[in-house]
Amino acid sequence: MDKIKQALQAQVTVIEENYRHYLNNPFEARHAHALRVSLRTMRALLNFLKKSMDADVYESYNQQLRESAALLGPLRELDVLLDWCAESAVKEDKLTKYYYETFAYLHTLRRREMMKTLNKTSRKQFKQMIAILEALNTDQLKLKDRKDWPRYTKRRLNTKMTQLQDQLTDLNHEDYEGVHTLRKKAKKVRYAASLFGPLTDKNFSKVILQAKDIQNELGALTDSHVNQQLLIELAAQVDDKAVKSGLLALSKL
What we know:
Blueprint: H1 2-24, H2 29-49, H3 55-91, H4 99-117, H5 120-134, H6 138-141, H7 149-169, H8 176-196, H9 205-237, H10 241-251
Helix pairs in contact: 1-2, 1-5, 2-3, 2-8, 3-4, 3-5, 3-9, 4-10, 7-8, 8-9, 9-10
């Protein structure tokens, strides 16, 4: 039980550090990404403990984390798009003569979304979420009193990995929503195995690598599709002909 508490508290510290880094330099995409990942990791850990928790307690923590991560969603979406477009511009440097205008527009959108994460409402949400997590302990989580936590943890991790592999076998790779959902499950397994695996007598390195491989494989399937759709949506919203032309050109790659 103490080891579980320590693992959760360690993740709270990671969240606090990443939020501090983000506030110091929100212009750096990796800080926004690191903060969002740390929030999702905490959600994955709590999700792993869900069956041993009171449902209302689980949902109260999960909601705080979900709402905070959602604030960073649009920003992360643009960061991924900018990175994808930057790589495309290098590979296809003659694709459009409006690269400069297009990137200027995308960076303007990025700055706008960044400022939303820094307004009073967003800061209040993050502050409230961190305060709740700082007070987190196993008593508040109302975890069931298990004398076999290591065995339970090992069994649950093995079950989740087996389910993930079975779902991957049955996955329709053209169902982008299904691919995205399974990718999120792979992340949950990976995060839980990384932080809770060491509490058992089994080495979960192979599970962590397998989950990461699945995550990357599914990410490759969805990223291009999502970015292309976003470019088309943005092109429909912009009046500037140069920017519209650049966005549509990139969407066809």
